[in-house]
Amino acid sequence: MTTVLIVAAAAPKQPAVLIEALERFRSRGARVTVACFFDSAELPVDPALAEVRSFVVPPEKRDARLRRALGRAQANRKIWLHAQRHAWLRQRFRSADLLVALDPRSVYTVWEMAQRNTRAGAHYGLVPAQRALDVPRTEPVGKRLERQVAAAAGIGTRGARRAAVETVRTTVQKATGQRIMSNPAGAWFWSRAVAAPRVPDRLRSKLAVRLHDSAVKAGRPAVAARTAAAAVSRINSATARADVLTKAAQGELALGHVPSGLHDAIRAQLALADARLAKDPKKAAAAVSRAWSLASNRVLHFDRLSSPMSDDPGAFLAPFRASAAARKLSEPRGRLTPAAPTPTDRPLRLLVTTLINDNFLQEILERYRAMPNVEVRFLDLYEDPVTRPLALSGSTVMEHLLGVESTYGAKIEEWLRPHLDWADTVFVDWCQATAALFTLHDPGTARIIVRLHSFEAFNFWPHLVDFSRVDDVVFVSEHLKDLSAAVLPQLTGERAPRLWVVDNAMDLRRYPRAKPADARFTLGLVGFSSVAKDPRWAIDVLRKLREHDERYNLTLIGSNFNNRTSKPATDYGRRLAKDLAELEPLGAVRRYGQTDDVPGALQEVGVILSTSVRESFHCGLVEGAASGAVPVVRDWPFFAGKPHGARTLFPADWMVDTPAEAAERILAVTATEQAWTEAGRAASEHVLKTWDWAVTQTDYDRLLLGG
């Protein structure tokens, strides 16, 4: 009886084809085994046709040697590493007459099996295997012996070569590892060795990145910087130099550090972009994209308690302003005709558009949809799965702006031109991909309005927007306008758009509700899912309050903290989790969770906190104040000490600088029920007459209907 072994790396997309082949094998008297590199339950096959078994070595049975091998191996070789460790499968392939690879990823494994069972035929695919079964294999004894010797020699050679390479790799890894680079003598040796003459660029580059990462992990960033600089000074290729500096910076960012060589890496990529701009704009775009990827990394701006962008925008962005390629991305191309005036003989056609996030649009859409003199359309660029990919690739937009010949620009024109031709006014919420795409081509006579919230100021997207084609840019606060103007020189000057400050559209009338008397001891924080919200600042305030009175407690409203975005977020999340593990069992902290009924959640909150390091406005704080909770606002560090910030946005008595000041204010306003009630009522009255939609909607009328 002929024995057939079929190896499958993945479950076949058409199991019926496999089952039909198994039936043919059985009709020819063959005994078939199917070895799966996946759960065999995914392949329901009649046991009468074939034995089906999985050969993945379970994680708990993988020794250190196998784990190391799997960690280094390419995808196809990993399958073989599992196969050769599986006793059942070893017995099967050594005794098989026919070895069959069912899919491309299993070919290497079947080839390795054939080197160890030289009398078996080896085939890729079911059809060749069936043909081989119909035509018995005949081979002279001498030829078979020659093939067996060659196979055995090949196995030995590959094993020896692999062992030699592995020995060298292990030696280099140990010699350049964290322990060596933490030793002054080791660091001294390698910082000179990496700059030795006549070392090929490719080897020097790899060694430099390895040494840099080891030094950073060893807590010696200065050594890391010296080592990288020494290597780069000896590398001839500009591309290789940029690659070393970029990988070094990426390594530090992955560890949650602000790279010491960040600007060196950015400048190196931009120098490549400038050099390639004329002859190879596609490669120039790739280099600019890498530079922006470094500069807008969330570790720098979102997952820490400070940002180099807010500290000094001009210095941080100086390399981009000095680069011809980077400047070309936001080069003003102007519009062929100015925006048409507001029509008087028909309803105004208003297109409201965004990408995914429409959280701040509901009141706006409801108001203008109800107006007889306005016709509203809403466009979310993410909704259509066909065109969606066009809005998700910043690098492709960069290629188009730098002159790469492609169909991308034509596709954007075909997609958005009907909307531009229809609309009198286009309101673009969020200054990201949507704004870039709507200014990629001339907007015709449509008036373009872009609202910039907060995160965009730290991102690359606004630098791809042609603001000479934008009529109005809207901010929700003066401090955000100041930051954006410092980040984007295109917002000032002769061809700049009009700049507005218009508050968020918020229906605050639904928040005031009667609060229970004991709510005065409950602090509330709406939104605590990111480092920027700094919920541990609230925990610090709570601890100080509980030193005076253990009735004080904290309610956290919203999604749990997201610790998966970066290493700093993970570290912050770990510290926050430790705080919560201590305080939640005491009843001192309660996680309310995500809710659609925020007014209901705030009914139990007597003091509303804003603990963030940056905010454009902080709707959650204002909603809490509207409910009658007493506001306590940290002077947001990103904007503290600047002409505008939280202190110019909110009443002075709301503001504090430190957790100690916050605790002092809370103790004072909650000392008696009457004092707390009066302070909460005053806060509610202030926000309702200042920021409620009934007040701010007239500002939107001036913006959207005024022309």
UniProtKB/TrEMBL annotation:
Keywords: Transferase. It comes from the Bacteria. One of its GO terms (molecular function) is transferase activity. This is Glycosyltransferase involved in cell wall bisynthesis.
